Amino acid sequence: MASQQDFVGRVIGAASQGAVGAVVAASLSAVTEPLVNAMLVKRVSLMEALKLLDPEMIKKFLQTTLATNFIKFPFFEATNIIMQGVDLPPTARGAALGSVFCTITLPITNYRFRKSMNLPVTPGNLYQAYGPTVLRDIIYGIARNKVSVFLNNLNPTFAGTMMGRVVNMFATVVAACVLSAPGNELRGYCLQPPDRKQSFGDFFQPAKFIRSTSVGAVIMGISLAIGTMATPQVEKLVGVVKEYLQKNPVSYVLIVLFVLQQILAMKRQGELVESMEK
Predict the structure, then answer these.
(1) pLDDT of amino acid 130
(2) Which pLDDT band holds residue 207 (cuts at 50, 70, 90)?
(3) What is the pTM of this model?
(4) Helix or strand run (H / E) with residue 135
(5) How many Cα atoms within 13 Å fall on the side-chain side of residue 174?
(6) ∠ CA 119-21-123 to the nearest 5 degrees?
(7) Distance of alpha carbon 183 from alpha carbon 131, whole angstroms
(8) How far is it, in rounded angstroms, from Cα 33 to Cα 44?
(9) 10 Å Cβ neighbour count for 79?
(10) Could you give the residue ranges of the DSSP H alpha helices within 155-205?
(11) Residue 148 reports pLDDT greater than 70
């Protein structure tokens, strides 16, 4: 029973790590993602991509990055912890993690991509470039598992400290992003607008590859490294809350009533706003 509770705490802790990372990444990505996507798909230079930036577009895109990150980041980190409990070889576990994550979240990924490029969003393009995207996510999932285990075994004492967890997470995520970057480049090639599509030889150039990969990898690494700092505190909080609820079972009823009250309040507020707009 205790081990099951520890596992639940680890899953919630991983989800919180993803949530903190989601906020950091969303803030950074609201500016950098339109740049990265312009360099990745349109293959323009950094200076040309900067000229395409619009403050109003950044403000609107921040809403998109926050909403999508709050789904994708906690989901991946929590699923990663859950998959660690599955009796599979690390490579197979990482491949399963990447394929499941991609299949479920690709509509969100493509919605976000098209918003960053000011392209129309239709049901038909929500699963666009599925093949290269699932390849990217499978490689990323395998790399996350392999690199994480390698770094933890390299110096277990350091890995057990807060600084060690932060450094190892940053290094793991950056390495996973770089290793899975060819899949991301192939995805960018497939997402090119038909009227501006470059040839295979023109699109795949080392300088452009490095330019479009480095920014995204560093953002992901910084975001999840910062998120790692929140994980131990959340796990402790989960333990305290569980202990309190076990000693005070009536608290479950109070929580349910509080949630119901919040739902009803939101419903009443929505009805009030709707009546005022009429």
Answers:
(1) 92
(2) confident
(3) 0.68
(4) helix 130-154
(5) 16
(6) 25
(7) 9
(8) 14
(9) 20
(10) 156-159, 162-179, 181-190, 200-203
(11) yes
